[in-house]
Specification:
The complex is a heterodimer. Chain A is of the alpha/beta class. Chain A contains nine helices and ten strands. The two termini of chain B are 122 Å apart. Chain B folds into three domains: 5-169, PAS domain (Beta-Lactamase); 215-286; 288-418, STAS domain (Transcription Regulator spoIIAA), CATH 3.30.750.24. Classes of the chains: A alpha/beta, B alpha/beta.
Chain lengths: 322, 419
């Protein structure tokens, strides 16, 4: 893209391995002022030297998400925390975040188990459930993709294990929920209990927020399908989702940046323009700021849980107190 | 077609050679391949572990696990034998790994052991450990130190089953090639031996035919090699044999012809001998003829010298004549006898004696004076034989005797001689 298409900037890359692979290239093309904007990952590499100069993030990092989860669990007396994660850089960054957050409290993970990237919902993750359950943890943090995490939750609950399970934002909360609800319909068992998902954007159910109103309005007005080349048969886009809401917010900030670039945007000015953004209101009741030492717009982490088949903000962690 | 012994032996030889070849080659090959593959995998593992260890020094110092994980994931290549990679930090904690669902206990133990002997391990550089992980198989764990060990170690697990599979596949390919060569050589040998055995069999059959007498049998000369030479020699030999036999036959024929000639000659000879014998018998008969001049009077005129043989004949024919003609008187005419010796005189006496026994009187006539002189000179006694001067007086004496009967004749003979 950089060589042949001469793109102006890179935007919204999805996934930790994807982003970590691209980082060295960004460094290589640093003289051409190629920047990656708002990658859809909370991983650490793009937030740290030597790559933090070439990336602008919007969302809070996995470290922040996992730190928030760990802090809350520890607060309510759930100190023995186990980790279920994807065997790749994404899972590892979650693992790293949990480890650091626990270390802050002089704690260590009591158990960890991985799964292979691309594991489907139909596959069994009983082995992982058993490995973690052996250490009898107070809570499980899952850093994975929706299908595998849903399968893990299903197998844990099927095994009669009702430990609180927390997922991070990347999981794709709605997809995970729809799989679990489908299984609930089949077996009559509620797979959504004791489920907590951390998010880096507010819930799209919080309609009091102007950004949510705008997002919902636009999503209701325009129904856009993915390009034909990548459209999978039987795919129906979700009406709203945390992921698309995050994408919407990413785009909103990018548009603001491009506006500030002036009539003739120049690559060499990107950094200067973005770093000058301070207390930008995008309708989240929370100002967005960038700076030379701050390449991440938001530090906010939101927690949601399933009530009545919907993700709603967590109002009281005491619910899961030990 | 019944396979020839030669063919069987050759094929058996092929199989034995093939077996020896297969066993030795596959043995050598697997040993060699194992060594080389192990070495190669060891090198590969070392290169991977050391390159991870060296390339990400910065990352290790930054403590960014996800970047290390990303690096580690890049090197995972199960088909290429790289079955796992994991990174241990200086505290002995595994900060990145590729295991699902968790790090096997064996490797946790290995890592702890290496940590326990950290000092010596640092000095050794990279370390190879061979271990078996249940449900995963046999591995060669190659670990390299990060920052000479102060920042931890990188472990790379090379699957031995992949090495073994590669060795097996290499051996299988080799064996396939050997088998194809074997098959080719069998086919080649089959035709080659057939080329030898077929003419040999024809030669054998032809030899048997020749032995049974068929000398017109020839074998086809198909090649200019030893077999062709053999066939040519055989044909030459049979031709020579035939020539020799024909020569013998010719000789035989000549011999038979000569033999027939000889037989004929012999027969002619036999015939001539028999004719001569007849002649001789006739002569003999003629030399002592007995002539009946009257019913009971026989005359035996003697001509020539009387020898021993003739004397016997004379006695014999006279006695036969006496018996035949029932003669009472026999006149022996000595007119033709030139010589009388003691032997002849004794014969005459024997004749007379024998005749007398048959009742026949013997009259000796024609004694010439020379003979009489000789008889006297020799002192021969012929007094018991009646003698007369000549045949005429002898016949008249005989007639007289015949008329008077036997006794008178004896008396008269005595009288006459007394007279």
């Amino acid at each position: 893209m950089i060589e042949q298409d001469d793109v102006f900037l890179l935007f919204d890359y999805v996934g930790t391995p994807t982003v970590t692979r691209v980082l060295p290239l960004l460094k290589k093309y640093s003289d051409r002022h190629i920047y990656l904007f708002f990658p859809f990952t909370g991983a650490q590499p793009q937030r740290e030297p030597p790559y933090n100069d070439f990336v602008f993030n919007f969302r809070a990092s996995y470290r922040q998400e996992t730190e928030g989860l760990v802090d809350h669990f520890v607060d309510i007396g759930r100190k023995n925390i186990a980790l279920f994660y994807q065997a790749d850089a994404y899972g590892r960054s979650g693992w790293d975040g949990v480890k650091r957050a626990l270390a802050k409290h002089d704690l260590k993970m009591v158990a960890e188990a991985t799964y292979r990237r691309g594991t489907g919902y139909s596959e069994s993750l009983k082995q992982q459930v058993e490995i973690l359950r052996r250490s009898n943890p107070d809570a499980v943090i899952a850093v994975g993709a929706y299908a595998a995490c849903a399968a893990f939750i299903r197998d844990a609950r099927d095994a009669g294990w009702d430990v609180p399970i927390a997922n991070v934002s990347f999981v794709g909360s709605e997809n995970m929920l729809s799989l679990l609800l489908a299984s609930s319909e089949e077996t009559g068992k509620d797979y959504t209990v004791n489920l907590i998902n951390s998010q880096v954007v507010p819930s799209y159910e919080e309609t009091s927020l102007p950004a949510v109103q705008e997002y919902r309005h636009l999503m209701d007005t325009y129904s856009v399908l993915p390009p034909k080349e990548v459209l999978e048969p039987g795919y129906t886009p979700l009406r709203y989702s945390f992921v698309s809401f995050e994408g919407f917010l990413n785009a909103k900030i990018l548009v603001e940046i491009l506006k500030r670039m002036g009539r003739i945007p120049r690559r060499d000015r990107i950094r200067e323009v973005v770093e000058s953004i301070s207390s930008l209101d995008i309708g989240l009741n929370q100002p967005i700021s960038f700076g030379p030492d701050r390449h991440q717009g938001s530090d906010a982490v939101y927690y949601t849980t399933v009530v009545d088949k919907h993700f709603v903000p967590v109002t009281d962690w005491k619910e899961w107190a030990k | 077609m019944i396979p020839s012994k030669l063919l069987r032996k050759t094929l058996l030889g092929d199989i034995i050679i093939f077996l020896i070849l297969t066993v030795s080659i596959s043995g050598f090959l697997s040993w060699n391949l194992y060594r080389e593959f192990t070495q190669e995998y060891e090198n590969r593992g070392f290169v991977i572990s050391s390159s991870i260890a060296e390339s990400s020094l910065e990352t290790f110092l930054n403590r960014d696990a996800s970047t290390i994980q990303a690096t580690v994931d890049q090197f995972l290549d199960e088909d290429g034998g790289v079955h796992y990679v994991f990174v241990v930090d200086e505290h002995g904690e595994i900060i990145a790994h590729t295991f699902v669902p968790s790090v096997p206990e064996e490797l946790v133990r290995l890592k702890d052991e290496l940590m326990a002997q950290k000092q010596s391990v640092i000095e050794e550089g990279y370390i190879i450990n061979h271990l078996n992980i249940p449900e995963m198989g046999d591995f060669m764990d190659i670990s390299s130190p990060i920052l000479a060990g102060v920042a931890g170690r990188v472990h790379v697990g090379m699957s031995k089953s992949v090495i073994n599979a590669k060795i097996m596949s290499a051996i299988a390919k080799e064996l396939l090639i050997i088998f194809v060569i074997f098959l080719g050589s069998i086919i080649f040998d089959y035709f080659r031996v057939r080329r030898v055995s077929l003419p040999l069999r024809q030669l054998t059959e032809s030899t048997a035919a020749v032995a049974a007498g068929d000398l017109d049998r020839r074998v086809e000369v198909r090649s200019d090699d030893e077999l062709g030479l053999l066939a040519t020699s055989f044909n030459q030999m049979v031709a020579n044999l035939k020539a020799a036999r024909d020569a013998v036959n010719e000789q035989q024929r000549l011999l038979e012809a000569r033999s027939a000639d000889l037989e004929r000659t012999l027969n002619e000879l036999r015939e001539s001998v028999s004719a001569r014998e007849q002649l001789s018998a006739m002569v003999r008969e003629l030399s002592s003829p007995v002539v009946p001049i009257l019913d009971d009077i026989l005359v035996m005129p003697l001509i020539g010298i009387i020898d021993t043989e003739r004397a016997d004949l004379l006695i014999d024919s006279l006695l036969k004549g006496i018996e035949r003609y029932r003669a009472r008187v026999v006149i022996i005419d000595m007119t033709g006898v030139p010589l009388v010796d003691t032997y002849v005189a004794r014969v005459l006496l024997q004749v007379a004696g024998a005749a007398q026994l048959l009742g026949t009187e013997t009259v000796l006539v024609g004694l010439r004076p020379e003979l009489a002189e000789t008889i006297v000179a020799l002192g021969l006694d012929l007094s018991r034989i009646t003698t007369r001067a000549d045949l005429r007086s002898g016949v008249s004496y005989a007639l007289q005797l015949s008329r008077n009967g036997g006794t008178a004749s004896t008396r008269s003979s005595a009288e006459e001689s007394a007279i």
